[in-house]
Amino acid sequence: MSSRQSTLVGIDLGTSSVKVVAMTPEGRMLSAATRAYETQWRHHDWAEQDPECWWRSTIEAFREAYAEAGREHRGEIEIAGIGLTGQMHSFVLLGEDSAPLRPAITWMDARARTLVPELTAIISRRGLRSSVKNRITPGLTLGPLVWISRHEPEIFRTARTLLLAKDYLRFRLTGELQTDITDASGSLLLDIPRRRWSYELLDALELPSGILPPIANPWERAGRVTGSAAEELGLSYRPWVAVGAADQQASTLATGVLDPGTVQLMLGTGVQVASPSSVADLELPDTLNYFCHHHGWLAQGSVQNGGSALTWVRNVLQAEWRELEQHAAVPQPEGPFFLPYLTGERTPVMLDQATGAWLRVRHSTTRADLLYAGCEGVAFAVADAVEEVFRALQLTSDTEIRCSGGGTRMENYVQLVCDALGRPLTVLPSSDSTAIGAAILGGAAAGSFAGLEQGVQVLGISAGLELQPNPERHAGLRRRLELRNELRGAYLALQPG
Predict the structure, then answer these.
(1) CATH number at residue 91
(2) Can you give the pTM of this predicted structure?
């Protein structure tokens, strides 16, 4: 490297926007930039995105972050390594010319709902449940892929490569077609214990194995940025690019949740609760997922309707975020309940056709009551998922829960989650953990660190504020939660599926 400031870049291709951060290898944050993109709903249960929008948004965010990093450093910088992460399960099919054949299908898509019973039966009949490990749900890659093979056969016949979301970005950066073990494990196409593609499953479903890319470790070098990509990024040189990781596994690098005995709570558009495991064949309830981690495996509870449900409540009631945040601090012990299952749900109810509801609404119910109920309903959903992970892994009461994500910017909401749980939360001081984790991978690939663990030590987020639950409020929320569970049980019994 020259005398310029060496810099690492992390790119996080999220559900609604891409974030790019630039950091020094010593851990100083230089800049961050985001660009949003839209989800297209051509049908009520289709959720698609344009891969070209992913790329253009990434270019714009990268150039902004790169320029800002130079200004922050007050001098020239040189990027040593780029790491990637992104939304799990979302995928795009490329043709012979490596161009997308159709829009990408995201994890929010539910078109494969009707295929779930059939796919579940095939996996059971072939004795593949112990290798797939995860329950078949519409949003995971397998279902939509089978749907395309049956409903868009002309596209499926011409498909040459399947790439997950962040893998498409890496292909545009380096020209290399591959994926990593963590993202691959969220596709339902992987043999989780053996950490390889499940050729037995592909054979059972008559899917061609040739469309699946090679699998590598997240911190390995995928290659250098191509000359044409460097030009689009505004670079006169070609940095190393890491293979990258799925979003939750990238975030665990920044939060230090790599070994069994810690829990990561990510409050974002969705909510994820994850804890590492060293056991390949751990049996988990269907309400949880089991994915590959950097080393070992990761038990994960996923709440589909987290920040997205709060956004819906805010929009329907025409409230600003600040107002919603204020109402999260004002308990309504006799108020209505909100079930945030706007797009079905995974943990803990696993009903892809579930719908949301306001329950116990009266003439006296006010807008303020509904705003609080919205916050409380999502907080209860988060508490459900956390408790599910604790039970499944038999975690002890002193297990640390490290909380990060964009939702941590709402202090009253996080305190409400803490009070609902009745457990302390360590709230980390950065909401950029996923992108920081990607930067750690970029540094490992570039050789800026002796290994992945050193990158975690240097760039990992230092311990944050420890929130304690309010005992009185927790007791009140537990009573509310018991009543909500009764009402929820009766309501969900009426739901299809």
Answers:
(1) 3.30.420.40
(2) 0.89
